[in-house]
Amino acid sequence: MAFKKLLASLGAGGASVETVLTEVNVVPGGVVQGEVRIQGGSVNQDIEGLSVGLQARVEVESGDEEYKQNIEFTKVRLGGAFELQAGAVHAVPFGLEIPWETPVTMIDGQALRGMNIGVTTELAIARAIDSGDLDPINVHPLPAQKAILDAFIQLGFRFKNADMERGHIRGTRQKLPFYQEIEFYPPSQYRGLNQVELSFVADEHAMDVILEMDKKPGLFSEGSDTFRSFQVGLHDFHGTDWAAYLNQWLSEVGSKRNWF
Predict the structure, then answer these.
(1) pTM for this model (two decimals)
(2) Which SS3 state, helix, strand or coil, does residue 150 take?
(3) Which of 94, 179, 210, 247 could serve as a FRET partner for 186 with CA atoms 20 to 30 Å apart?
């Protein structure tokens, strides 16, 4: 599968750039492969640099204000400087590693609303930089992440929303400057519960799973029994009944607080 994006030409008669992704479906820890094709214009031009990266559109809270910010969270330079001849085509293949912490954008083949992650291409030509639009990628969950997500679905939870927020979750292995929250509506048996928020923070060995149970919007209670963080190995998660684990925690907290 190929995904193409044509960048704007750098001035009249200037070079143009086309990014082609070989496959848009990836997983954290994987690689997105593709090719950048630079089409020479009507004159020779000095190419000072070419790079590709991954970018996420992230929510930022600053005081009482909220806004969206594009954060490039990985970047790779492709080769060195060279002269692009007029009319020539210069093709540069690349493989861009997907960080283990990269948020998922797909669950069971369905796109998560609110997710915006993709490949960026940047071409520097003679003191000018041409940055292209985002070439979206679909980030599917790792098997260990899918096991947790499937447990919520098995219990009857429904997907509400997902977002990416700038900041850090304390006590986790987080290295990126932002994290993902996946929000679920509860089924009727958890009648006093408004929603559950889920975050994953993974590396090549394991992941931190962060759960927050909210009785009402805006109730954040880290350190209380409505907040839980635990570690799951990426290769040894099969031995746990995650639906039973989650149900036990929800039931214990709910009955203690007379929510259910």
Answers:
(1) 0.88
(2) helix
(3) 179
